C-alpha cells in the first residue's frame, strides 16, 4: 500500500455489521445533536463463524490461561513454527526450531508486508491499520476480523483482575477511545462480540465538534463504560471536568506516571490501568506492583541482547522479543519490540520487570499550547526522513536533527511552524545518509515537565 494513501470507505453498514440487524443505536451515536464530525466508518465485520472464533479465543487465551515456564516453551510453539515455515513466505524453507530463527524488526515488516501473510489468510478479511509512527516511520499493519476483534476479550481479561466486567447490550457505549490530537480518524461503531454495544473513537480537539462544549455533552450523554487513550488525552479530558462514571480507564501508547495515574483516579473514581501493547500484536501486559503482568498465553516472550542475536537468560535485562499471536496476516517469530525489560515468572505468570517503553513527550508553543508528539509524527511521516531527533529546550525552542538525502531544513521548519502555529523558535539540521553511517531511531525529548511526576 502506498505510504501516502488514505483510508477508503468501500463497505456498507450492513457489510460492516453482518450479525447486527438493528443499527438504530449506531445511527443515534452518529446523528446525536452533540455528536462530533465523524470522519470515518468502522465495523468489526464479524459473521457467525468469526464471532465463534473470537469466543473460542477468549476461552482459550483469556479464561483458561496457561503460560510457559522458565524451563519449557509453550505447548503450542512447535506447531506454530511448523505452520509458519509451511505457509508464511518470510519464514518458508527455514528450520522449525525456534533457536534457528534470527530476530525480525519493524523494517522487515515495513519493507515486505506481503511476505508475512500466510497462504491460508483470507484476503477478503484483510484490514489495514496505519500506525502513528510515534517511534519511527509509519507502518501498515495487516489484520483479519478475528485478530482485530480479539482486543476486546484481551481487555476483558485485564478487567477481571479488578472485578470489572463490560455490560454487553445494544443501548450502551462499551468503550470510547479518547484522543487529543490535531487530526485523527474518528468514528462510531458497534461490537457484535458485545451484542451490539457501542464503540467510539473521538478527538477532543474543538475543531472536531460543532460547538466547543459538545465533547463534554456527548460523552456525558452516552457515559462510556471503559475509556481508553494515552496519558495526554486523559489529562486533556480531565481539563474539561466531565461528569462521567467509567468503570475503568485503560492508558496505553505512552508511559503513565504515578502522578498522572493518581490524579485521574482521584477525579474519575475508578482504576486507571497502565497497558503495554504493540500495534503489531495488540495487548501484552499491564502494570502491577511487581512489574507488568503478561496477559497473553498465545505470545511467547524472550529477552535478547540489544545488538546481537543472542537470547539472554531469565532475569537478565535486554530487548523484549515476541513470538506468536493469532493474526494470519502477521505471524510473529522473534520480533524485536524496541522496548527493554527483564522477565520473571511468579506463580506461573510472566512479568516484565522494569519495562522501559515509550515515554509521553508533549511539546509546548511559546504561549503554552500543548502539542502531542503523535501530531508531529503524522505530519513528518509524509516526507522522506529516515529518522530524526526532536528536543525542546527549557526556553521552549525546538532543536531538530533529521536524516535525509532529499529534504531541506526549510521544509522541516515550514512543517513544524504549521504544527506549532507559528509560535515557536526552531533550529533544524539535516544530516546526509551514507551507506556506512548509523541513523538513529526517531526520538522525542523535552526539558519541560508536562505531566505529573
TrEMBL record:
Protein origin, superkingdom: Bacteria
Domain (AMP-dependent synthetase/ligase) ranges: 127-324
Chain ranges passing through the membrane: none
Name the UniProt record assigns to this protein: AMP-binding protein
Amino acid at each position: 500500500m502506498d505510504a501516502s494513501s488514505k483510508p477508503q470507505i468501500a463497505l456498507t453498514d450492513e457489510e460492516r455489521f453482518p450479525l447486527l440487524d438493528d443499527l438504530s443505536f449506531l445511527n443515534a451515536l452518529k446523528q446525536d445533536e452533540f455528536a462530533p464530525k465523524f470522519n470515518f466508518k468502522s465495523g468489526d465485520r464479524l459473521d457467525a463463524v468469526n464471532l465463534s472464533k473470537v469466543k473460542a479465543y477468549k476461552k482459550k487465551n483469556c479464561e483458561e490461561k496457561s503460560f510457559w515456564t522458565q524451563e519449557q516453551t509453550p505447548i503450542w510453539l512447535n506447531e506454530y513454527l511448523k505452520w509458519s515455515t509451511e505457509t508464511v513466505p518470510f519464514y518458508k524453507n527455514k528450520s522449525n526450531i525456534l533457536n534457528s530463527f534470527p530476530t525480525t524488526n519493524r523494517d522487515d515488516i515495513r519493507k515486505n508486508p506481503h511476505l508475512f501473510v500466510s497462504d491460508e489468510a483470507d484476503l477478503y478479511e484483510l484490514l489495514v491499520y496505519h500506525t502513528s509512527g510515534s517511534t519511527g516511520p509509519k507502518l501498515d499493519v495487516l489484520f483479519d476480523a478475528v485478530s482485530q476483534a480479539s482486543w476486546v476479550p484481551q481487555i476483558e481479561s485485564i478487567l477481571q483482575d479488578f472485578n470489572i466486567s463490560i455490560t454487553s447490550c445494544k443501548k450502551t457505549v462499551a468503550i470510547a477511545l479518547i484522543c487529543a490530537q490535531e487530526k485523527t480518524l474518528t468514528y462510531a461503531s458497534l461490537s457484535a462480540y458485545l451484542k451490539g454495544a457501542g464503540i467510539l473513537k473521538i478527538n477532543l480537539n474543538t475543531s472536531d465538534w460543532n460547538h466547543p462544549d459538545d465533547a463534554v455533552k456527548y460523552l456525558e450523554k452516552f457515559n462510556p463504560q471503559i475509556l481508553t487513550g494515552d496519558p495526554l488525552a486523559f489529562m486533556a479530558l480531565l481539563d474539561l471536568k466531565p461528569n462521567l462514571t467509567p468503570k475503568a480507564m485503560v492508558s496505553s501508547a505512552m508511559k503513565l506516571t504515578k502522578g498522572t495515574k493518581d490524579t485521574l483516579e482521584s477525579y474519575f473514581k475508578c482504576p486507571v490501568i497502565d497497558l503495554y501493547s504493540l500495534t503489531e500484536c495488540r495487548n501484552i501486559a499491564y502494570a502491577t506492583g511487581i512489574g507488568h503482568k503478561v496477559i497473553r498465553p498465545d505470545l511467547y516472550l524472550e529477552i535478547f541482547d540489544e545488538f546481537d542475536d543472542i537470547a539472554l537468560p531469565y532475569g537478565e535485562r535486554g530487548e523484549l522479543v515476541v513470538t506468536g499471536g493469532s493474526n494470519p496476516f502477521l505471524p510473529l517469530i522473534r520480533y524485536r519490540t524496541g522496548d527493554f525489560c527483564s522477565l520473571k515468572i511468579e506463580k506461573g505468570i510472566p512479568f516484565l520487570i522494569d519495562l522501559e517503553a515509550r515515554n509521553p513527550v508533549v511539546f509546548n508553543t511559546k504561549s503554552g499550547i500543548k502539542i502531542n508528539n503523535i501530531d508531529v509524527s503524522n505530519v513528518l511521516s509524509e516526507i522522506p526522513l529516515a529518522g530524526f531527533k526532536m528536543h525542546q529546550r527549557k526556553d521552549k525552542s525546538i532543536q531538530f536533527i533529521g536524516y535525509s538525502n532529499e529534504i531541506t531544513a526549510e521544509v522541516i521548519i515550514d512543517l513544524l511552524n504549521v504544527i506549532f502555529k507559528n509560535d515557536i523558535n526552531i533550529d533544524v539540521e539535516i544530516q546526509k545518509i551514507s551507506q556506512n553511517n548509523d541513523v538513529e531511531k526517531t526520538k522525542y525529548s523535552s526539558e519541560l515537565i508536562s505531566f505529573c511526576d
